[in-house]
Amino acid sequence: MPQDEEQKTIGRVSATEKDPSTSETFSFWLSDDVSVNPFDIVEGDHTDGSKTYGLVTALEHITDSFSHLSNYISNNFGEFTEEPNTPRQGATIAKAKVMKNTSKTYMPLRSESKVKYPDAKGIETALGIDEMAEEDRIVAGQIELSNKTNSKAYIDKRFTLGPEAAHINISGISGLATKTSYAMFLIQSMMQKLPENEVAVVILNVKHGDLLHIDEVNEKLTPEAKKKWTDLGLECEPFKNVKYYLPRNKDGYGPNSQNPPDASKYKTYAYELKDAVDKLGLLFSNIPDANQTLDSMVGELTDKLLSPNQEWSQVSDWNALINNSPFVSNGAAKKFGDIAAASVGRFRRQLRRIVQTRQSGVFVPRRSQFEISLSSELGKELTGGNTFVVDIALLKDEEQTLVFGDVLKTIYGLFFEPDDNRQTPLPKKVLIFVDELNKFAPDRGDTSPIIEQILDIAERGRSLGLILVSAQQFLSAVHPRVTGNSATKVYGRTGSTEVYTAHYRSMDEEQRAALTRLDKGELILQHPVFRQPIKVTFPLACYKQP
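Given the sequence above, the corresponding structure tokens read:
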């Protein structure tokens, strides 16, 4: 056997009576000088010349000792300063799950079959990347095995952007999982893959001013960090053609945002009554409504405001709606259709709290010439090659829900019922990114206007070209129909309590445990093309970060 081939061998398959090799799993012992870790990819040789690739899931060390007591006694009853009286024979055993067989027969690996680390091409074969067409490959990070072999990780465009499947969901502990950074990396990777005029990006900034400077260069990026982008075949550059939309401040002078971009780069949005007439239900999404009273109120009210008669024609702003006829008579709430006066009073109190007493400034009697209607602006400007950042970080919860729902409703409406008179064509794909998805689509067993909006995108958006890229700390906190429709799932470091919920049942126990040990920047990627989840890393952002 040539020496260089022997050096590649790290162990041999070990099949026993109680632990046989199967079409799905195999075990192998390791040479004493070899280091292997969970999520490493290995290859085993078949007698027919084919190769079986496996993902290492767990390692264990065994000896010929019958019990721990035997080991204690062999060390002269716990005298650890001396050599053991009975030297033990031991071996490190790695357990692996089958990923792929090159002959597609899936015959079990035989005992004593040689096991090696694959080269970069072998990693691609293990993942099925070799069967992806070049035009369908989207860079999703880098794979690095314990022997320092590197390979690009690709996801299949057909299962990310349609038509086969779509949507991406990312979860993990805040700060350690780098969810936002990875989402932005994936978005840039997809934008660089697709023709520029075919894709638009809509980003909801929900945390501080994190994403309000994505069109500016990251001056702190080192040459080594930039090289990681070029090694992946990507350009290290900030986002292009970015339009920022920031919420109105309470005093009306400037936006209600942290660390805003230059004034020339953003527009300020606000909501007068007519901007929210067909979205009033979004304001009450987080308010308990067991008897559907608020829902009925909103439905009736929307009909009246969209088709006003003489009685409703005077209701032109928020104050008139809350305090004047036809809801109020002689200073008190009155019956509205079949809805009792007490229920009308509750509706008025909730609406007053949201749009007047505790609002952040985004609700106004009339928008000034310097303030835009967000839905009108997006409807007009949504074209390929542009990125739209909507800041909602400092808004109250009900305000955030309204804005997010407004964005989804506007985009969905543009594609579901296209305007024949539109001057510019719609992009073929729209990537919509939102963090803290659990705030908008919680797993609480009921529905709401905002959940319905998100489900429309998750379940029907793929056919329209609308792709949801979402993130949250806890996968278990999100509506299962949203995460269930996300074909690609990404996991950062996760707490031990979370990983043992039903939402992680697609992983075995060892893989779940590994999620609790991930370092910052390490992510586990599940994709329909891969038979097993893989570990990836990704480069630092090329845009300016706070």
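The two ends are 56 Å apart (CA to CA). Try to locate this feature in the token string yourself.
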